[in-house]
Write a structure and sequence with these properties.
Layout (H helix, E strand, L loop, with lengths): L1 H50 L5 H20 L10
Helix pairs in contact: 1-2
Length: 86
């Protein structure tokens, strides 16, 4: 009986280890996706900025600056203050 419980515990530990490893890889994969997605969104915003009316441009610029700051922080771990865009 004790032998069966030992094997069950070993199997549980091995399964839990696989889950923890998979979660760690999922986090790394999500960071990679974010690294690729942010530049694409910035390019789309630049297109929007080029097509926007003058009244819309300040809001788009502010969003772009906030996104750039978030991207820099993601890449470097350094948080930059976002200054208002004129």
């Amino acid at each position: 009986m004790a032998r069966n419980q030992y094997h069950q515990l070993c199997s549980f530990e091995a399964g839990l280890s696989l889950v923890v490893t998979a979660v760690g890889k999922a986090d790394a994969l999500q960071r990679e996706r974010d690294d690729l997605r942010i530049p694409m969104v910035l390019v789309q915003m630049q297109v929007q900025l080029a097509q926007a009316g003058e009244s819309e441009k300040p809001a788009i610029r502010a969003k772009m600056e906030a996104l750039r700051s978030a991207w820099i922080e993601l890449q470097t771990g350094v948080s930059l203050p976002v200054e208002p865009v004129q």
